[in-house]
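note to self — DONT lose this again. spent like an hour looking for the file last time. sequence + predicted structure for the chain T wanted, 357 res
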Amino acid sequence: MMKQVYSDIIQFRGSHYDFGYMQGERLKESPILPNREQQWGAKRKFHFSIDVREVKNVLTKFASGIWDEIEGLADALDMNMHDAIREFGGYYLEYGRSGCSIFTGKDFMIRNYDNHPASYEGRYVFYQPNDRGYAVVGPSMQITGRIDGLNEKGLAMGYNFVNRKKSGSGFVCNMLGRIILETCASVEEAVDLLKEIPHRHSFNYVLLDRKGQTYVVEASPRRVDIHQGNVCTNHFEKLTEENRYRMDESMERQGKMSAQGADLQDGYQAFQMMNEIERGVFSEKYGAWAGTLHTAAYFPKEMKAWFSIGGNQKPVIFDFNKWLDGEKVLIKQIKGKLNSTSPFVNMEYLTDPGIML
């Protein structure tokens, strides 16, 4: 049964505090937070002890604007900062398993984000700060984080889950994605940041900028290593001691992309390889947290962002340069369909969320 789903487009220009406040006002009318509360429930309150000062110190060191954004969210939602950090700070929150595949050329990054639909908040965000940090476009996770994206300097980023065993004190993937995009102008700056910043779990971070060289940063709470490559899935090539025991499916997707990718002529053909269900990279394993929810493409030289939800779709194409120059995106939602019965959490109040995040 195909389920109709959508992402809401959110656009904002202004200070981080005002951005947070606006998002908080919108969240009051949305099922996202009540659904997440139902999914996490008492488990979250029990497991996550938060030291507000510690999180503030780390966040203000790397991306102080995001701290202001959380303050704006807290004020709009009438939350104390302890609860707001637990909800939006991206420092301790546990992360569910997921799939994901990334393929790059010298001019593009194509990324399939794989997870359970009920984990997905359905927000595609354009934000241009006027206080500090770079403008970024991309889908959000846990409101403040970014799953993938492109910034005004032409840096593109996506990440792939590897392991959540042996977690450490540090930021989760989506907050790291946001900090990279908001504070780094190049692949080199992003690599330096990922070497310095604390990591909660083990993830691959794939980086591409206008120079056209792709770097894969393998990051765990213990070690960070880097290599160049244009295909990335859910295992490490260098930090092999951090890999999960079962990697067959990840290796299989990597092999399919490598084999098909050799003959690709351009970004659109690469997008089709990732998005067409019959090509074998797009996944419909939604019940196993490994179904493809969106396919995103970023073109750093052209400053274009493509986005689609579900398989066998044509991408919605955004001209990020025009948006940066003040032109507003006129569509309100990006629509798609998935071979699943579950909606995204932005769509309706879930009486039975069906999963624990």
